[in-house]
Amino acid sequence: MSTRSTTHFIAGEYEAAIVYRHADGYPEGHGKDLQEFFEAVEADTKDTRFGDPSYLASKLVVWLARKFAVTYDAENGYEPVSHANERPLDFISVGVCLQDPTDIEFLYEVDCSQADEKGRPLVRCYEVAYQGPSTVAKGPEVDIPA
Description:
Number of strands: 8
Structural class: alpha+beta
Shape: globular
Order of helices and strands: EEHHEEEEEE
Strand content: 35-45%
Number of helices: 2
Largest sheet: 6 strands, mixed
Number of domains: 1
Low-confidence stretches: none
Mean pLDDT: 91
Helix content: 10-25%
């Protein structure tokens, strides 16, 4: 079973984008991946756009797409082999959505109007609370492992 999540890119009250992740959405997975993503943005760009939620969300989609552009086959013992350079559009497990799907377990907020101690956007993680058959809401906040 996959642990699905969404990441809301916000600046204060303004929400710019929602990125969906199909698997490993729990804090030890996606929460840690967000920190790796911020490190990659700092290493790969001169302009991080940490203050711009729409640009940063776009960068996360590209970063996750490269992460998920893999093949599993018997020849390599079913270890993932990246094909991101040869076939960068051949990925699944990440998307952009207008609202939270009702099967997510965690909801992340990347607040680009606030910075953590490293100068990166402030990230919060919440368990999802369901409010009816087609509505999800933030439940209790969850710590993200360092």
